[in-house]
Amino acid sequence: MALPKEFWKVVSCLDDEGNLKAYAFILSQKGLIRAAPEEEFEVGPYEPFQTKLRELERRTGLDFGKLVDSDALETEGAEEAFEADLGEAVRIGSLSDIVL
Question: pTM of the entire structure?
Answer without folding.
Answer: 0.70
